[in-house]
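Local shape tokens

___
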Amino acid sequence: MQERSERTRRKLVQAGAEMFHRNGYANATLGEIAAFAGVTKGALYFHFASKEELAEAVQLRGGALLHASVDALRASGARPLQTLIDITHWLARSLREEPAIPAGFRIAKECAGLQEAATDLHRVWLDVVCELLRQAQDAGELRSGNSWESVESLVAATAFGIEAMAGTGMPHSELRRRVTGLWPALLASLVPEGAETHYRVGPPDAGRPVRCADGTVDDLERPVPAGVTGSTR
């Protein structure tokens, strides 16, 4: 019984993420979410007393996925700055593949100032980015002499720009290339001269074909070496 209840709750969180992502927090209804999940409204209310509670669960899932991805990268031995590069690529991919991520950002925008910092996905994303940057500084990866405030602001603005670019509806393959193109310029200002070549700026799976939303396959993804900027098209 408990396993079935947990499965229903997961289905509702996933359905909530889909509906919040598609329709926004204000326009999504609990009736639509229950129908999308294939459960009754009574079952939904058993797990979530309100739309606010469900939205919080969606954002918490987004934050948990983000932290789990960072933990996995660090556990694999990736240095902090490489982890930061890779987590921006993870975000670009997850904005397309995992509804809780774009839904979490959309909820954060619509409910700005009304949520706890631990729930607001924008704040969670900012905290992760800044913490990885701080770890990179502590590990001696960053160039000495740079103002910490300037470095932090530059990287934070870049990280948030990924979500903004995804919001324009550009194809995922284009977003991948643009995120890759950001890093050579950033590394040139972040790390000691010549150290840029120590980092992979493309996604970990660069070179693997990407299946687009229309069913076609984009096989033009290639690893982009540090120092090379711009689109491949």
The chain is about 65% helix and 0% strand. The longest strand covers residues 210-211.
